# Entry
Amino acid sequence: MSDSMMTVERFIAEQERLHPDATGTFTDVLLQLSLAAKIIARSVTKAGLVDIVGASGAKNVHGETVQKLDEYADDVIVEVVGKGGSVCGIVSEESERITTIPETYEAGPYVIAIDPLDGSSNIDVNISVGTIFSIHRKRSAGRDAQDSDALQPGAEQCAAGYVHYGSSTMMVFTTGAGVHAFTLDPSIGEFLLSHRNMKIPSPGKRIYSVNEGYTNKWTSGQQRLVERFRTGTGEEGSFSARYVGSMVADFHRTMLQGGIFMYPGTADAPRGKLRMLYEVAPMAMICEQAGGLASDGRNRILDIQPRELHERVPAYIGSPGLVELAERYLLED
Ligand code: P6P
# Structure
């Protein structure tokens, strides 16, 4: 079968056959996430037309105004995946505590961590947003997930992925055997394989992606690194600056074109803004599987032992040479 007719369902089924001991439960989690993505995409692409645009007024655990679509996306995933019988817990940006599965539903051996709609502040201005997910295997005893089941180093993830609601809706994920992307064909409601075994270009395009509005709050090493990119005074020459302000969009561009995406720490927030479990660790797994690197500026992201469900971590993700260059500058701090 040609890739153009390879649905995500068939692709995952073929991958499952490579694991004789597979029970199909892991496959179910991925398929449920793809269904949730289609349901969310249906609303996101009509955001201007239905009454779910604009802040709901509620606040999430970080005190940020929750957009109605954030809540909707969270509800969809909790409904579709939470009641799908394959997971025993869900960690979400929208919920302070881990969500366990009601007794009336079967609980499975996996825990997912999700950012249901990352970049949601861009919804009202029609800029790309995304869903990010991470899947871990349950380690604790008993039916219900414990925090510890989610608080595993990123290197232990069974799978990681994102859905990019952009000019097209694209689901990109890895199960540890390369990164593969599926583009939604709305006319048949199927995700079709569009990029098999994605590799991040290296050195790739010289693009740096960071919010330079925080320059005065960065460390001196960070300031000198971005000064090198901005002025093109390094041996790598001149760069282009690209920053959408939506991690999925900035990361997806980096995956396709190369470059480096950064969310550094600042004097006010030394650990930066992005969360480890459902933003940085999944993107780090994807990036490494595509031949890139992902660091907090000193350490490999996937080696870091998380301590809290919503902990933040500085992020330097992209083409290997640029991430290594960033680490050299930050070591001088
Ligand atoms: P800033 C969106 O709110 C988000 O969590 C990421 O998607 C994005 O990369 C980052 O925050 C943007 O943050 O501070 O540059 O607006």
Remarks:
- The chain has eight helices and 15 strands.
